[in-house]
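> call design_seq(struct)
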C-alpha cells in the first residue's frame, strides 16, 4: 500500500478537474472555450518555469516545437482532428511522467501537492477544450487519469535518474501541446469527430 497516497491524489485531482470541465455543459461551449484558454494558460505558466529552470532556452524551443507540430500537420492534412489527437497523446505522455513523480516523491507532501495542483486545472482545460460535455469528460478525463495511474505504477520501477532527465523535456513539450489545444478552437464540436 506504499502507493495509496499517490493513487488517492490522482483520483481526487483528475476527478475534480473532469467534473469542473464537464460542469459547463454543452450549452456553454462559448464560455467553455474562454475558461479552457484561461485554465490552459495557468497550466502553461506553471509548467514552463519548471522546464526553463532545468533546460534554459531549450525549454522554449521544445515548447515551441510542440505547439507548432500539430499546426503543421493540420496544413498537411485536411483532417484537423488527427493533429489534435496527436497533441492529446503528447499530454498523456506527460501525465505518465507526473504519475512517476507522484510515486517517487510520495514521502514529500509539498511535491505531491504541487503535482496535484496542476493535474486539476490541466484536466479541466483539456475536457473543456474538447467540448466540455459528458462525452468529453469520459473520452478525455478518464484517459488522462489512467495515464497518471500508469505512471504511478511505473514509479516504483523507474530509476530516479531517468525521471530527472526526462521530466523537464516532457514538461516543456506538454506546455506547448496544451497551448495548442486551447488556442486552436478544439472546443468546436465539429473539430472532435470522435466525440460527436
Amino acid at each position: 500500500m506504499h502507493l495509496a497516497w499517490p493513487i488517492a491524489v490522482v483520483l481526487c485531482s483528475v476527478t475534480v478537474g473532469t467534473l469542473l470541465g464537464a460542469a459547463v455543459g454543452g450549452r456553454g461551449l462559448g464560455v467553455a472555450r474562454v475558461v479552457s484558454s484561461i485554465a490552459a494558460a495557468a497550466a502553461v505558466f506553471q509548467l514552463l518555469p519548471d522546464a526553463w529552470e532545468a533546460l534554459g532556452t531549450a525549454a522554449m524551443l521544445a515548447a515551441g516545437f510542440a505547439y507548432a507540430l500539430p499546426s503543421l500537420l493540420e496544413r498537411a492534412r485536411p483532417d484537423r482532428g488527427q493533429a489534435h489527437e496527436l497533441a492529446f497523446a503528447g499530454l498523456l505522455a506527460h501525465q505518465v511522467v507526473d504519475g512517476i513523480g507522484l510515486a517517487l516523491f510520495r514521502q514529500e507532501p509539498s511535491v505531491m501537492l504541487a503535482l496535484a495542483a496542476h493535474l486539476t486545472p490541466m484536466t479541466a482545460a483539456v475536457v473543456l477544450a474538447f467540448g466540455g460535455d459528458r462525452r468529453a469528460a469520459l473520452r478525455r478525463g478518464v484517459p488522462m487519469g489512467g495515464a497518471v495511474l500508469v505512471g504511478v505504477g511505473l514509479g516504483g520501477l523507474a530509476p530516479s535518474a531517468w525521471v530527472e532527465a526526462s521530466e523537464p523535456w516532457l514538461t516543456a513539450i506538454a506546455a506547448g501541446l496544451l497551448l495548442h489545444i486551447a488556442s486552436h478552437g478544439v472546443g468546436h464540436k465539429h473539430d472532435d469527430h470522435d466525440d460527436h
